Amino acid sequence: MSKKVDLLQMVEYGGCSAKISPNQLEEILKYLPLPKDPNILVDIDTHDDAGVYKVNNDLALVLTTDFFPPVCSDPYEFGQIAAANSISDVYAMGGDPVLALNIMMFPAAKLPMEAYADILKGGFDKATEAGVRIIGGHTIDDFPPKYGLAVVGYIHPEKVITNAGARPGDSLILTKPIGTGIILAGHRLGMVSDDDLTEAKRLMKLLNKTGAEVMKKFNIRGATDITGFGLAGHALKMAKASRVSIRITMKEVPLIGNSYNLIDDGCIPGASFRNLEYVEKDTDFASDLDYNLKMIAFDAQTSGGLLFSAPDEKVNEILEDLHTAGLQNSKVIGNVSEYKDKFIHLF
Ligand code: CO
Ligand code: CO
Ligand code: CO
């Protein structure tokens, strides 16, 4: 293990809070021609978590990459969180992650090489837990450090779970509580208890593997993971791709520790406002919606949980399975209806 290095001192926004704003991204993507190929089953057209390419009638590849600046002080934990987050997009599509490459930016003159090794070791251990073999990578000398994986997974071409699979009448299930952005902002200000920080880190390290296994068992067709664009941002991508309206009851959304009260003390990361700007025009806000709960809907999550759309009659069984699998905070937080007025209705 390396001598005490604090990665958080090197960054202003870490984790998925460091993503470019969704509005800017959509502007840029307009100019990018999409390749045409009948074997491309999923591309950025539906804003899905990963691309899917059909190899033959039984096999398609799921491809994704994510990387970001540190979300925590410890290099080994940062490696674990970054890897769990990168692999998550394969799980969100219903795939089995298989192989990965490291993507690393590391300031060799500013940090000891032990920190570099510890980040990679964290990534390697988390990948191993997921059954993923890391078979290569690439490093650039750069400040601040950034780390993630490019991941390849397998999936049956007819069993792909996408943003476009939500159906009117479905319930929406969330598998991890919200609040990593708020907790990390509060931690920087010295306002977060050790227990809450430990819980946020535990959740960020937690693979979405078990949640994905439950989705597959129940033949779920519509899902995403909740990361940088926040609960409402990712729900919007689902609503648009599925051409439905999504209603989220914010009071039902499980939260990490003291997240709600930290907002009163000003712990709202800049990413929340960028996310709000992105979702606002497509959202109907209940007139009595509490301000803190509203901002929680836009909190950028790092390595957040799965949000999936499930037939109402299966919900109890699904929740029982999720709870048994260790995802005790899994809950129904809203539902899907025919498109009406706006894509998102926040209550
Ligand atoms: Co994702
Ligand atoms: Co991602
Ligand atoms: Co290279």
Describe the protein's architecture and organization.
With 347 residues, this protein is α+β, with helices and mostly antiparallel strands. It has 2 domains: 7-155, 60s Ribosomal Protein L30, Chain: A; 170-346, PurM-like C-terminal domain (Phosphoribosyl-aminoimidazole Synthetase, Chain A, domain 2, Alpha-Beta Complex), CATH 3.90.650.10. It has helices at residues 22-29, 75-92, 113-129, 180-188, 194-205, 209-217, 230-242, 259-264, 270-279, 291-297, 315-324; strands at residues 40-42, 51-56, 59-68, 96-105, 133-140, 146-155, 171-174, 222-225, 244-248, 283-285, 306-310, 331-338, 344-346. The strands form 2 sheets. It has a 7-stranded mixed beta sheet, with helices on both faces. A 6-stranded mixed beta sheet has the order 1-2-3-6-4-5, covered by helices on one side. Strand 2 and strand 3 form a beta hairpin. Helix 2 (75-92) packs parallel to helix 3 (113-129). The longest helix is centred in the N-terminal third of the chain and has 18 residues, at 75-92. It is globular, with a radius of gyration of 19 Å. 53% of the residues are buried. The structure holds cobalt (II) ion (3 copies). The site of one cobalt (II) ion has 5 residues, from helix 2.
